[in-house]
Amino acid sequence: MAGAGGGGCPAGGNDFQWCFSQVKGAVDEDVAEADIISTVEFNYSGDLLATGDKGGRVVIFQREQENKSRPHSRGEYNVYSTFQSHEPEFDYLKSLEIEEKINKIRWLPQQNAAHFLLSTNDKTIKLWKISERDKRAEGYNLKDEDGRLRDPFRITALRVPILKPMDLMVEASPRRIFANAHTYHINSISVNSDHETYLSADDLRINLWHLEITDRSFNIVDIKPANMEELTEVITAAEFHPHQCNVFVYSSSKGTIRLCDMRSSALCDRHSKFFEEPEDPSSRSFFSEIISSISDVKFSHSGRYMMTRDYLSVKVWDLNMENRPVETHQVHEYLRSKLCSLYENDCIFDKFECCWNGSDSAIMTGSYNNFFRMFDRNARRDVTLEASRENSKPRASLKPRKVCTGGKRKKDEISVDSLDFNKKILHTAWHPMENIIAVAATNNLYIFQDKIN
Amino acid sequence: MMLSKGLKRKREEEEEETLGVDAWWLDPGHPAVTQAPPTVASSSLFDLSVLKLHHSLRQSEPDLRHLVLVVNTLRRIQASMAPTVTLPPAPSPPVVPSVTDNLLASSDAMLSASMASLLEDLSHIEGLSQAPQPLADEGPPGRPVGGAPPSLGALDLLGPATGCLLDDGLEGLFEDIDTSMYDSELWVPASEGLKPGPEDGPDKEGAPDLDEAELDYLMDVLVGTQALERPPGPGR
């Protein structure tokens, strides 16, 4: 097959050549609010890809087995299960509506044939079991095929039901509901490496749950001041360490990260480590604090590093060095001169997520105009790509995009003022082992694959 | 998206004009940018922040992160403006009753009390008099609006001392309760212990005063109706 005009990157080494694979979602110009994707997450094997949306629905895609007749095409993701995870609720006590929007989905490691995931809205976390049924029992002793009880006098012999194949049915059922533990809006959930507990974080508190116990949780961080007038900082994200079950981190609206050890005390208000980069005096502005607010924190798979996303950059921290990050990658520095406008239209408060690839050699995060950025840590190269229907020919290579910041705009460049700030890519996910990425662009989910095997 | 209908017409034009002019200090091309950061904010940036704060507080459940960031930014701006801003006599802020209305309906009483005190500070600084008047009219849907005395003193009602609210008298609170259910005939053959009427509060006294005869009577009624309703079927 003739490849589309390549991206211009020489093959070899860590160079990715990303190609369009699939896009899911409606093509309509009018996007229904409920269809806006609010979270994307691969499971541990990468065979399942879950999305949550503002309407409280979860859609799970499953990767098809590789087809022998088409050896060059990698497995595609097709819908596996769709279910309504959360419904809009009304808190009668406070006269408040509780949004059904799914803020986060986190998969549990697979332990048997069924799959489990946690999904959360602002107030309630639910554990869902997704199981397959492809057999049914036939030949009951006491029941007819249609379920009616057989007349006892007619039963003259004993027969044992046998299992017969049936069309595959995928069922999702809520197994646990963890409610009433958060006064403020839940922004994060994270499954512990012990596979028994998980944490949930809202603006001011972090709670620890046992997956089997729903009527009780332990509060492990509480930053609510006694006097609310003194409130100047909120929790923005939290995550458990991938290997050390007693360690977790949480980030704040002031650009700080605290690492806590649950062995040191029951209430982890005192941190074990405190990560903060001193402010650069030359770039100070009234918006310094807002743009330093961390919107996402993710440990590397190795557990040695963590990555934070603030408004303009992604930073990689070595857990052993608290005073500054080891790497800083600019996502869209050209926006620094536009902060005032972005403050006015509230874009400056957008919360972008970030993710690692399986080997921790690359990181990815979203931007505006349906652009997303990828940073190759080893090669020290970065690229800007776009998720758009125009570049959606099967297996078409993605062409790197460039934003023109001043002076003469070259061909194929786009000027900062032409960027569409309504097209934001906040949620991205990277397959845990392969070079397959999922990018959520408003109500569409794009899947891209690396051409190089 | 952040400005309500009542505000757009008046403020937006001004803001667009002044921002175009005042944002020079963010322009990388301007020589001043590479030097010391600006020490004085434009008043439009201040007004914008105050508007955002109001808008945030108007939400039924404010986004705490947004609120905190706006408040902190406002403090920064306020601090930079302090030496140069003249302080006109604080207008008895027309904004206060509307803010109070919304704060009263706010879910977190402590937070709203604290934000109100912050706003009280801010209200002494120029610019606030132009803040949203329409707020008084638009109550967020589905929530009790109004009924608040037009002074910050009303916020005492929200404080930890809940006793204040009841000082008006219990009867005042219960006047609206529909007591027709207590007047129904089903309860008439009751013993003397059961006296329905508007004087009773939401009837906690009802159940415990039912005596044995009452219960027997009720059980008979229930069992009787069930016997009538259940169709004969294969025994279970």
Keywords:
heterodimer; A: 453 residues; mainly beta; four-stranded antiparallel sheet; 2 helices; 2% helix; globular; disordered N terminus; B: 236 residues; mainly alpha; elongated
Q: Give the count of helical stretches of chain B.
A: 8
Sketch the major β-sheet of chain B: none
Q: What order do the helices and strands of chain B follow?
A: HHHHHHHH
Report the end-to-end length of chain B measured between terminal Cα atoms: 64 Å
Query: Rounded to an integer, what's the Rg of chain B over CA atoms?
Result: 29 Å
Count of discrete alpha- or pi-helical segments spanning 4 or more residues of chain A: 2
Distance between the termini of chain A: 16 Å
What would the principal axes of the Cα set say about the shape of chain A?
globular
What Rg of chain A, in angstroms, do the CA atoms define?
24 Å
Name the poorly predicted regions of chain A. 1-13
Mean pLDDT of chain B: 55
Q: What oligomeric state do these chains adopt?
A: heterodimer
Number of strands of chain B: 0
GO molecular function (chain A): protein phosphatase regulator activity
Organism (chain A): Chinchilla lanigera
Keywords (chain A): Repeat, WD repeat
Region (Disordered) (chain A): 385-406
Overview of this protein structure:
Chain A: Keywords: Repeat, WD repeat. Chain A: Belongs to the phosphatase 2A regulatory subunit B family. Chain A: InterPro entries: PP2A_PR55, PP2A_PR55_CS, WD40/YVTN_repeat-like_dom_sf, WD40_repeat_dom_sf, WD40_rpt. The complex is a heterodimer of chains A (453) and B (236). Chain A is mostly beta strands and 453 residues long. Chain A is built from two helices and 32 strands. In chain A, a hairpin with a 3-residue loop joins strand 3 and strand 4. The longest helix of chain A has 6 residues. The N terminus of chain A is likely disordered. Chain B is mainly α and 236 residues long. In chain B, 44% of the residues lie in helices and 0% in strands. The longest helix of chain B is centred in the N-terminal third of the chain and has 18 residues. Chain B is elongated, with a radius of gyration of 29 Å. Chains A and B meet through helix 2 of A and helix 2, helix 3 and helix 5 of B.
